[in-house]
Specification:
Blueprint lengths: L1 E3 L11 E4 L4 E3 L11 E4 L19 E3 L22 E3 L20 E3 L21 E3 L21 E3 L3
Parallel strand pairs: 1-3, 2-4, 4-5, 5-6, 6-7, 7-8, 8-9
Length: about 160
């Protein structure tokens, strides 16, 4: 199913959007709902990261589980996720680049479980003072975790099982 990103322009009250793996968004993302709080999107095929024009500054929960992305966003762009509390990237089997976490100061839950091609965590993970849950379950290429993880004051659950 193809959906034009511009189709959402009139939905100013939309707070949660769930897009399955057979939904492909096309077009310009500048008019995507700016008040969206929860986005669940299984990105397939035509995109290897979040679209460049997608504004998610108010997003609280971003769930891209089972997506085919190789990176969260283009690292040459600055993305702001100042309100994000939950980032789920579980089963993103092509994810190779761990994002820089400096734009996510409020992050509490981070799930990388079964990201089988990711080999390391960005050291900025140590800046996540609110992080309570971190899952690296079934991430066989992650051979060591950054020293910064052992300094996280709020961490309640750490899953390093394989």
């Amino acid at each position: 199913m193809y959906v034009e990103a511009e189709s959402f322009v009139a939905m100013s009250e939309l707070r949660m959007l769930r897009l399955g793996k057979y939904v492909q968004l096309k077009g310009e993302f500048e008019h995507f709902p700016k008040e969206l709080r929860w986005l669940q999107w299984c990105i397939e095929g035509h995109l290897d990261s979040l679209p460049d024009g997608l504004n998610l500054e108010n997003i609280v929960i971003l769930d891209l589980s089972y997506s085919m992305i190789t990176q969260l966003w283009n690292p040459q762009l600055t993305k702001v996720f100042g309100k994000m509390k939950v980032l789920k990237l579980s089963h993103c089997g092509n994810l190779t680049i761990c994002p820089d976490f400096t734009s996510m100061p409020q992050l509490q839950k981070l799930d990388f479980s079964s990201c089988t091609k990711m080999s390391e965590l960005h050291p900025s993970i140590g800046l996540l003072e609110s992080l309570t849950h971190l899952s690296l379950r079934h991430c066989p290429l992650v051979k060591r975790v950054p020293q910064e993880i052992w300094q996280l004051p709020s961490l309640e659950e750490l899953d390093l099982t394989y």
